[in-house]
User: Fold this.
Amino acid sequence: MERLKNYPLWIAIAALGGLFMNDLGLLTPEKYDQYVNAILAVLIGAGIINNPSNGTGFKDEE
Assistant:
């Protein structure tokens, strides 16, 4: 069950869902790009996506 708490897993599943909807013709490639860019902007703004090169990310202790 620990794998279900992994954020990259859910991001990959969401991306797969978007690509699947694109293949079915329910979502145009232009709209898909707009949605992805909007979601990434929100995640970056919220600090969800970070640079882990300086440590372990959110688990860093000050």
